[in-house]
């Protein structure tokens, strides 16, 4: 049985649910650059985003030191540039971006909308200051 909000069973266990219709991202002619959707459910172990890059936009070269990332192109095209060269990213391609790898993305002439998924980063925790630690 489900609770009134439908997110958990009566015993508190979470239930699967539909979060986002990626087909709604298939024709983003007038969208600006940025996240169209983010996974924000409490208690999750993953982070996920649907991101749109308009034509001519890019994500500059960077490294993710701690997390592997899956990237799925939902619509449009683009290119991935890594240490081993440039790779085309047509619609439907699923790419693994291993932690520590350098990469950049560039949208093609029609832009590119993609889904990224990775392990959730631990959040910052605010703790009481240890009274035995003296600051100078």
UniProtKB/TrEMBL annotation:
Q: Which GO terms describe its molecular function?
A: dioxygenase activity; DNA binding
Q: Which domain of life is it from?
A: Bacteria
Q: Does the keyword Oxidoreductase apply?
A: yes
Domain AraC-type arabinose-binding/dimerisation per the UniProt entry, residue ranges? 56-118
UniProt keyword Amino-acid biosynthesis present:
no
Offer one example of a GO biological process linked to this entry.
Answer: regulation of DNA-templated transcription
SUPFAM superfamilies, per database record: RmlC-like cupins
Pfam families for the chain: AraC_binding (PF02311)
Key words of the record: Dioxygenase, DNA-binding, Oxidoreductase
Q: What is this protein called?
A: Quercetin dioxygenase-like cupin family protein
Q: Which organism is it from?
A: Streptomyces calvus
């Amino acid at each position: 049985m489900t609770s009134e909000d439908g997110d958990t069973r009566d015993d508190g266990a979470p239930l699967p649910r539909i979060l986002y219709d990626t087909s709604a991202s298939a024709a983003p002619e007038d969208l600006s650059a940025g996240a169209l959707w983010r996974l924000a459910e409490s208690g999750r172990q993953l982070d996920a985003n649907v991101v749109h890059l308009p034509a001519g936009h890019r994500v500059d070269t960077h490294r993710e030191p701690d997390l592997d990332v899956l990237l799925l192109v939902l619509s449009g095209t683009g290119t991935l540039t890594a240490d081993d060269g440039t790779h085309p990213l047509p619609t439907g391609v699923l790419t693994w971006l291993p932690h520590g790898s350098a990469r950049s993305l560039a949208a093609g002439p029609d832009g590119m909308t993609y889904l990224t998924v990775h392990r959730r980063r631990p959040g910052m925790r605010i703790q009481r200051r240890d009274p035995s630690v003296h600051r100078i």
